[in-house]
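Q: Here's a chain of 114 amino acids. Please give me its 3D structure as tokens.
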Amino acid sequence: MLQNQTSILLIAASLCLPVIGAIAPAARADIRDFTLHNETSVDIQELHISNSGADKWGANLLDKDILLPDESADIVFEDNSTSCLYDIRAITDDGEIDKRQVNLCETVDFSVKE
């Protein structure tokens, strides 16, 4: 009887594992999605991202939001680009902070620092 109960528990546990694995990737649907961290002492008013070397910055990804110091925000890509290298511009109360050639395919967290 004990052996049957153990077998049932092992089968139930093994059936749950693929479900857990299937749920985790949904949090990062696009390999370029990342969490932005404001590690400055000022508000981030806008965040712009463009393919590295592009002539223009993309739209403000924070929309109408402001990222306060020590806050984080999830940045989600919704285009079909296969590029990994991006330039990132944070516009703060004190000016602009640019970071060039960021490989977002290998990044899950990106911190803006002064």
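Q: Can you summarize the key feature?
A: The chain has a mean pLDDT of 82.
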